[in-house]
Request: fold
Amino acid sequence: MAEIFQDEGETKEVHIQSLKRELGKLQSRLESVEQKFFDDMIDVKTYNEMKRKTDVQIGDVKMELEQIKSRGKDFQKHLEEGISIFKNVNGFYENATIEGKRQIIKSIFNEKLIYTSKYFKTSHLDETIKLVLTQMKKLKFLRVK
Reply:
């Protein structure tokens, strides 16, 4: 599971670097437009139109950068909390009400869970849960059809 999150982090970092390069190009373009305007190579109307378009593009890239950066801020904290809860899911399940037990099962198994005399089965299993279950030998009775 750590490998998947590491890969996602690397992909995120590549995306951030790409956006930073794009932002640099847009800022250079804006400086070029300003220089052309100051050198009387373009008129006021053209300058204003090009500046407005470039400013909008710069704003879009900056907003996307901020969204990507803020997406993973507390990721490690939430991951650790989730793992802690997941490690103690037996305790939570044993102490839960009937409705609480249903909620725990629903959160783990998104689709209908069917019990046969030998095993449980479901048509779909969340990828994260799949990774965890494949690491636990006790849960070999679970089959995804």
Notes: The chain has a mean pLDDT of 78. The first strand starts at residue 113 and ends at 115.
